[in-house]
Amino acid sequence: MFLEEVIGEVRLEDNTFECKGKLNRDDVVGWLKSIAGFANAQGGQFYIGVEDKTNKLIGFDKKDADNERNYFNNMVNEHLTPRPQLQIQFIPYTVRDKERFVIKINVLESNVKPVILRYKSIPSIFMRRDGYTNGATYEEIIQMSIQSKNTQYDLLVSDVKYDSSKFTKLQEFYKSHNKGKELSEKALKSMGFMDENGYLLNGALLFMDDYSDRKTASQCLAFAGTNKGSERIVTLKKYSGNIIDIINSLMDFVKQRMNYSIIKKGDRRINIEAYPERALFEGIINAIAHRDYYLDGTQIQLDMFKDRLEISSPGSFYRGEKIGKTYDLTGIISKRRNELISSILVACNVMESAGTGFDKITEEYENANESHKPYIYSSSDHFTLVLPDLTYIEGVTDNKYPDLIIPPIKNGTEHDEKVLSFCYYHARKVSEIADYLGMADSSYLRKQVLENLVSNGYLEKSKVARANYYKANQELIMLS
């Protein structure tokens, strides 16, 4: 029996059609690349249980077909990023009065390209052409990037259907911030929580009670001192689960470990928290809402030091420039990277629709002195909010410059080590570096010292407005 007898048309292997008798467990890349190639091209149909070239039906019984589909899904989830949109169905047929099944997988053209196949930590990009799947050419990769619709991760449709019983934690969270009101299914639909067929969007999956994938992974560290290099770690906690659990876990980690103090003013006592609760909450919500969920293997990083708290989120500011370091939080224009996730948090009254979360943080610190002012810095792969500990009298000072181990630098100068140490933890302007070195802001400093370090890869240069900022590349430099 052949495939054309079941589907009613004759198909030959071409750009949009391929068959496999069974998924090869010993050569996962051999068939996964076809799925990636279809998604990077025009899409295609992939049949399992059909002999290659002849289209002869091999098929499965119901149990084996289910196992084969589950294995297929697991491998796609593990190795393809972003996950292509797939429509999977069992096609039944009968042989000698026994029901058999082939698996039809309709691979849709990806809205976000290229789809990358990562196996044993090696990323590859494939393209379907002329009935074969091969590595994409440089020109094809560029073209894919140009043509990509740039759809946000949380707006892609999953293969999971909506079930109201799976969102009890979201409902409780919504009630606690909306005076006991319930989050209606109508409201969810209006936000785009699911598509017209009831399939959840990726962003909705992250709010499911039993969500357990690593897209929400977070790590919290508490250090005994003021830097990571030479201070011992007091506590390390790793969290995963749905977004509501992550918010609560991060809040609890800080609140259980932060300091409290009392200031006496006349006959009054003023209680001071190391980190104002509203500022802390806004910082955590911001990290979750603007995280780049396409970046697999990353995590929200929360680091507590003796003098400050740092909240880092994977991905730079969405469609924004790198920020070396700025205290002007209210001047940052942050565009939404995750529309659905942000809409849900806005509906829960924990995020402002106008994006004024940074304003609230500034308000909480408005009476603090200069060494206790919050600030933000960003690179190409993460952004970090720094909240000073209000109970630490010295504040966050800039006199903590680590000792470094630096290999010989081509055309190096006597200032290199001091510059890299000064710029190790924070990005600095040229004027700040000149003041620290006790020298003039000269062409010698800019070209022979700073630009030489940049060209050798030891300094990373970014620009905010008209000012250049320099930060040490920590991957090339070791702490002594």
UniProtKB/TrEMBL annotation:
Schlafen AlbA-2 domain ranges (all copies): 13-133
Gene3D superfamilies: 3.30.565.60, Schlafen, AAA domain
InterPro entries reported in the protein's UniProt record: RecG_C_sf, Schlafen_AlbA_2_dom, Schlafen_AlbA_2_dom_sf
Cleaved signal peptide residues: none
Domain of life: Bacteria
Pfam families the record matches: HATPase_c_4, SLFN_AlbA_2
PANTHER family in the cross-refs: GLPR-RELATED TRANSCRIPTIONAL REPRESSOR, SCHLAFEN ALBA-2 DOMAIN-CONTAINING PROTEIN
Identification of the protein by name: Schlafen AlbA-2 domain-containing protein
Phylogenetic placement of the source organism: Bacteria, Bacillati, Bacillota, Erysipelotrichia, Erysipelotrichales
